[in-house]
Amino acid sequence: MSSNAPRQPVRDLRFFLTVPHACSYLPGREATTLFLDPQESPGQGVYDTLALLGFRRSGRHLYRPHCEGCSACISVRIPVADFTPSRSQRRLAKRNADLSLHLRPAIYDPEHYALYAHYIRTRHADGDMYPPSHEQYRTFLTLDQEYARLLEFRLDGRLVAVTAFDQLEHGLSAIYTFFDPDPAFERRSLGTFAVLTLVAQAHRRGLPHLYLGYWIRECRKMAYKQAFQPLEMLDGRHWRRLIAP
């Protein structure tokens, strides 16, 4: 889906800063977030422009970290044409070949919410998304926009994972993935498989990039993003290759 919507100059948009709050990723640090004015509709043209500048979407909000004295959050993306899966990623793709994929609009679904709530309670009971609620889910992962989509992963009809993503003019943007935390599915590494699937989806649609959000060197939970090579990072206003350690 290619957008013909005019790109609104960034200087014509209004932004707001949050008050400093506890950082969700680095203990003992404070974070500040730059938000697009909620009165501005996150339409395709505006979104396309801001995504290139490192903005992400959460519900109706487009945002970017804006922390004084800290630049730990780095926007990263996979250049789809250059991506080559590793041996372990190829094995993982074969292991999940029995899953069926179903593309859905980003609207509320009780089955999706039940899996999301189970995932948060099991995997993230120590995080700021706990406890889960219907309202939290709706404001985070549902949006009545053409570019917002949910991709279901099913095993013999059973819902085992859902990944939320957006289709931009210049790539797909991975928003969030939740999956069945049952130990029986552990070897499937459904989070990693979701990323591999989105790379394949971007390639199929002729889109050059898959945006993976933010990567923090010191954050263990984000280390998985380095497994997708090559990886590009936003350095100021320019994207360049991130050298693998």
TrEMBL record:
Residues 111-235 form the N-end rule aminoacyl transferase C-terminal domain. GO terms for molecular function: arginyl-tRNA--protein transferase activity. Its EC number is 2.3.2.29. The keyword Acyltransferase applies. It is found in: Cytoplasm. SUPFAM superfamilies: Acyl-CoA N-acyltransferases (Nat). Residues 21-91 form the N-end aminoacyl transferase N-terminal domain. It catalyses: N-terminal L-aspartyl-[protein] + L-leucyl-tRNA(Leu) = N-terminal L-leucyl-L-aspartyl-[protein] + tRNA(Leu) + H(+); N-terminal L-glutamyl-[protein] + L-leucyl-tRNA(Leu) = N-terminal L-leucyl-L-glutamyl-[protein] + tRNA(Leu) + H(+). Functions in the N-end rule pathway of protein degradation where it conjugates Leu from its aminoacyl-tRNA to the N-termini of proteins containing an N-terminal aspartate or glutamate. Belongs to the R-transferase family. Bpt subfamily. This is Aspartate/glutamate leucyltransferase. It comes from Halomonas mongoliensis.
